[in-house]
Model the fold of this input.
Amino acid sequence: MRHLEAFLAGAWELVVGDDWRSAVGVVLALALTAVLATTSIAAWWVMPVAVALLLCISIRRAARDGSHAPEPPS
Done:
């Protein structure tokens, strides 16, 4: 049972990581891609646009919150 719990915790950390909002955005983009794939509309463009938008949103949020990598020791 401990192995299963450790696996699930690791999978959660891999998928969600530090920003659950980005993970939700990727899931929504995948869902939109799946929906568009069932129509006559090309679906290839959804993921590149979603990744670019999610990256911009994530960077803006990090800059606004003051989140940044620690400075190296001198």
User: Anything to note?
Assistant: The longest helix spans residues 46-65. Residues 52 and 58 are 10 Å apart (CA to CA). The radius of gyration is 17 Å.
